[in-house]
Amino acid sequence: MKPKVAIEIRFWKYIIKNDDINKCWKWTGSKIKSGYGNISVNDKIKLAHRVSYEMHNGAIPEGMFVCHSCDNPECCNPLHLWIGTNSDNVADKMKKGRLNPNDGMNNPRAILKDQDILEIRKLLLDGVKGAVIARQYGVGKTAICRIKLGKSWANI
C-alpha cells in the first residue's frame, strides 16, 4: 500500500502560479462540470479553491462559501478568495451580471413562483418534511432539497 502524500504537496502539484502575485493561480487537476477544481482530502472530495483558502487562512466557518473576486472557477489564489454566505455570493453574481437569466421564475419550465419559494423556506424552518412540501407544491423531493441547500432559487 502506497503511503498517503500530504495535501499540501499534492495541492501544489496542480497549481500554475503566475509571476504576478495578483493574477489567478490556475488549477490543472481534475475539475467538476462547472469548472471548479477538486482534490481528495482524507478520502473526501473537496473543492480546490476551498482547500487553498484553508491552507492560507484557516478553517472555513460552517455553512459559509468561499467566493472568487476574479470569477474564475479554476483560480486558487488566496488573494482572490473571500468568505461569504450564499446570499453574499448571489449578490456578487448579480452585481457582476453573472446570474443566469433563466433562474427562478424566468425559467420557462419553472413550476414554482418566487412567493412559493419564500413559503417553502418558512415551512422548512418550521420543521415540515420535504416530502410533505413536495406533494403540496407538486414538485419532487429533490427540488425541495435543492431549495433547502441553496442550490436552486438562490436568487430569492
Using the alpha-carbon principal axes, give the shape: elongated
Number of domains: 2
Indicate the percent of residues in helices: 25-40%
- Any idea what the CATH architecture of the largest domain is? Alpha-Beta Complex
Oligomer: single chain
**Order of strands across the widest beta sheet?**
1-2
SSE series: HEEEEHEEHHHH
Largest sheet: 2 strands, antiparallel
CATH topology of the largest domain: Homing Intron 3 (I-Ppo) Encoded Endonuclease, Chain A
Report the total helices: 6
Radius of gyration, Cα only, in angstroms?
Answer: 19 Å
Regions with little confidence, pLDDT below 50 for 5+ residues: none
What is the CA–CA distance across the termini?
49 Å
Total number of β-strand segments?
A: 6
User: What number is the mean pLDDT?
Assistant: 89
Which structural class matches the secondary elements?
alpha+beta
Task: Give the DSSP E fraction (strand runs of 2 or more residues).
Answer: 5-15%
Regarding CATH, which class of the largest domain?
Answer: Alpha Beta
Notable traits:
two-stranded antiparallel ribbon, alpha+beta, 156 residues, 2 domains
Fold and architecture overview:
- The chain is α+β, with helices and mostly antiparallel strands and 156 residues long.
- The chain folds into two domains: 7-95, Alpha-Beta Complex (Homing Intron 3 (I-Ppo) Encoded Endonuclease, Chain A), CATH 3.90.75.20; 104-149, no CATH class.
- It has six helices and six strands.
- It has helices spanning 7-13, 48-57, 86-95, 114-125, 130-137, 141-149; strands at 15-16, 26-27, 38-41, 44-47, 65-68, 81-84.
- A two-stranded antiparallel sheet has the order 1-2.
- Helix 5 (130-137) crosses helix 6 (141-149).
- The relative contact order is 0.10.
